[in-house]
Automatic annotation (TrEMBL):
Species of the source: Candidatus Roizmanbacteria bacterium RIFCSPHIGHO2_02_FULL_43_11
Highest rank taxon of the organism: Bacteria
Organism ancestry: Bacteria, Candidatus Roizmaniibacteriota
Family the entry assigns: Belongs to the bacterial ribosomal protein bL17 family.
The name this protein goes by in its record: 50S ribosomal protein L17
Record keyword Ribonucleoprotein present: yes
Keyword line: Ribonucleoprotein, Ribosomal protein
Positions of region (Disordered): 125-147
Length: 147
């Protein structure tokens, strides 16, 4: 029995909990912000802070943890290319929670989870298309009058 360990648990079971957290993390990394209930936001913040710290440290074992948890190339690339350069100087607290008030349907406390510093999207270089296509010169056609 683990005494004194406080972990936010959802009443769906371990597999559903892992799937929910993975989905929340992937959506947060993709969009840069997300709006969820207060309990989910607290759980999301702890996971994102740990993953961000591992991405900043950048050791091979940390990259394996990122690949195992995120399992999407675009999310791993976003963490390493967009998040790490901005958060490099920070030692923790990469995510902030902004209270939005109660949800209208069931009065649940809603929170916006966002990065503490503004991220800049890295634009991928698009291949340059040639505007002038080299076409072979048109052949001159002689018209012959028929009788």
């Amino acid at each position: 029995m683990r005494h004194g360990v406080k972990k936010i648990k959802f009443s769906k079971g371990q597999d559903a909990h892992q799937a929910l957290m993975r989905k929340l993390v992937l959506n947060f990394i993709k969009h840069g912000r997300t709006e969820v209930t207060l309990t989910k936001a607290k759980a999301l913040k702890s996971v994102v802070d740990r993953l961000t710290a591992k991405a900043i440290r950048g050791e091979p074992s940390d990259k394996q943890v990122l690949m195992r948890y995120l399992s999407h190339k675009h999310a791993i690339r976003a963490m390493t290319d967009e998040v790490v350069p901005v958060m490099k100087g920070r030692t923790g607290g990469y995510v902030s929670l902004v209270k939005l008030g109660p949800r209208q349907g069931d009065f649940a406390e809603m929170v916006r989870v966002e990065w503490i510093e503004k991220l800049q999207k890295v634009q991928q270089a698009e291949p340059v298309k040639d505007t002038q296509k080299s076409t072979p010169p048109a052949k001159s056609v002689k018209r012959v009058k028929t009788l």
